[in-house]
Amino acid sequence: MKIPKRLQPLVEDGLVDEVLRPLMSGKEADVFMVRCGNAICCAKIYKEVEKRSFKQAVQYREGRKGRNSRRQRAMEKGSKYGREQQEQAWHNAEVDALYRLAAAGVRVPKPYGCFDGVLLMELITYDEGDVAPRLNDVTMSAEQAVEDHQLVMRDVVRMLCAGLVHGDLSEFNVLVDDYGPVIIDLPQAVDAAANNHAKSMLLRDVNNMTAYYAEFAPQLAKTRYGEEIWALYEKGDLTPEVELTGTFVESTKSADLGAIMEEIQAAMEEEQARRKRREGDNEQV
Fold first, then answer.
1. Range 52-79 average pLDDT
2. Where do the H-state alpha helices sit in 162-224?
């Protein structure tokens, strides 16, 4: 096939030997299957900021600090140089998150590096070689839904123990291979301790996943894993091995109405986005 313009430098530099075929075209990136030596890999080409539809990027960048003070000042001022550095930081955030989460035992694709806005990483496949589908393209029994939901909750816990919240987790950002769910798409992952929106993002992530699996196992709809996980995290009692119950008892202390309204608004916006994705969906090639 014709080599995409953004992949041409990687081919010329010998990082990619052959572009095999497109895999997916989404709102944030285009993904291709490529050959690197004897390995079949995945090349994720990030779209330019003007062409991306990802909303509220400022919320996701909160708490991220650059090591270079000049770059950080430029990013804060919004200069051309700062915008370029911001884009590079957005790309590198996914690579850093993938390495960090893989080390924490979270099922994510293995990253190989980000080159000029192209992320090379492991291609998730079934054992026989077929490309693993996204979760939204998978149907399952109630028993399988409960089992896979538990696996995702376990990975959400491992992510939080590693200091990260996915921030955009849904059935569209999870692949399913022979061994269960694999979490993908992490450029917006946030620092749980440094981002004021981390709690609402984690609750939204968990609610998204629970709502999807509850379509196959309705009993999951009554669970409150998100609140339970965050409460354990705040108390310092969250560990990768913690036994979750899916239950949560509300505190008798006066509620933070501002935080509650923020969570309600975020949930409403996410539900609207979910409906649009269900209707249009990302174009899969």
1. 52
2. 198-214
